[in-house]
Amino acid sequence: MKIGIDKLGFFTPNLYIDMAKLAHARQEDPNKYLIGIGQERMAVIPPTQDVVTMAANAADKILTDDDKKQIDFVIFATESGIDNSKAAAVYLARLLGLSSDIRAIEIKQACYGATAGIQLAKEHVALFPERKVLVIGADIARYGLRTPGEPTQGGGAVAMLIGANPRILMLSKESTYYTQDIMDFWRPLGKTEAMVDGKYSSNIYLEFLERVWDSYQNKTGLALKDFDGLLFHLPYTKLGLKGLRQIIAGADPVLTVRLTQEFENARIFNRIVGNLYTGSLYLSLLSLLHNSERITAGSRIGLFSYGSGAEAEFYSGVLQDTFREGLMKIDYARELNQRREVSITEYEELFNNQLYNVETRKLEYKNDPANFVLTGIEGYQRQYLKK
Ligand code: HMG
Fold first, then answer.
1. 178 exposed, middle or buried (CB, 10 Å; 0-12, 13-18, 19+)?
2. In whole angstroms, what is the distance from residue 12 CA to residue 14 CA?
3. Backbone angles phi, psi at 77, to 5 degrees
4. What is the pLDDT of residues 163-180, one digit of tens each?
5. Would the CB of 29 count as within 6 Å of ligand 1?
6. Residue 37 exposure: Cα atoms within 13 Å on the Cβ side
7. 139 vs 120, 156, 187, 300, 322, CA distance in Å?
8. Ligand 1 near 208 CB (within 6 A)
9. Smallest CA separation from ligand 1 atom 35, residue
């Protein structure tokens, strides 16, 4: 039985900053951000959006009433959740109007969470082929103003419907994974910004890539030539490029050019959104499918997932001939280009205005054009609205 990603949706708020302007404000050479880090724009998250509203906005774009009836499991992967106890998936299920006869949970392992969600969903569908699982990867990436991590922030949500006979990507059975207790990036309880050993984290990412890629080839017998595209977790797009170069070193020049061209397609959206932590790999999948003219049904795509702390997985899938239908005819390039640029001062104000540990506050939400918004907090309870 074929199991995999049936539909894929994405949402990021309508605000962004220009990275060259951020570089000027921080007395850095713009090329450090544009080339050295590989980021051109960065999503800015207003207080009226959090992981729940962003997930609802992403999922609402792709789900039909029939899909909603078939979903009996919602897996919400996030490392910027809104509650220490209650799963974001429970709020989401209510906002989307899903049945109450479902499981709804939140999972966490840094940027790896959504991949764990997909693999759990695959096993659930293998047991119950008539059912579907909604997997979310939603996050707000925050490091702090004027820190080295600042240009690698961003945010957004990816929603994926996992089912039998998928429209987009049939997942292969085998994958390779690796976990080791490492302090490269973490966020202690009570802190709103991540702590990170940036250079160390980038080195560990590349080391874990080497491990899971080598073991994947040994386990499956597949080799570089069997892949039509390679996707990477993209905390900043230059790191994915380094990962690609590591894998293709010494490969046939024609294959090298082809995989590099597809990588360029796969980073177009990430370059203008930034890091969305657990959703980043899947935004890159969307970017590839949206922007590549060459990728076709039957193409094998490899996916490298990495979450600090640290855990990595390599797996692959084969594109289905209905893959464009699974994107629901949404013009993401247009949506991303229609966002409003904010000044660096406005971005700093929005950054400092995040709702954390707030008992009661009403928010001015009329300027947020999204369908699902956070209107405020009352007695520590988040108030959500579907417009
Ligand atoms: P930094 O120290 O400010 O930057 O921080 P740098 O000095 O290393 O420069 C960055 C690159 O720009 C270098 O290239 C420079 O040479 C180049 P590289 O040596 O890497 O090839 N550069 C220039 N290029 C062109 N023109 C110029 C110029 N100047 C310099 N004029 C760092 C960079 C990424 C470390 C920082 O932003 C950071 O700490 N970010 C957050 C951590 C991060 O993203 N880590 C990635 C791996 S961990 C991960 O992926 C998991 C994560 O997503 C979280 C999770 O799992 O939940 C983060």
1. middle
2. 7
3. -95, 125
4. 999 999 999 999 999 999
5. yes
6. 30
7. 20, 6, 13, 28, 29
8. no
9. 198
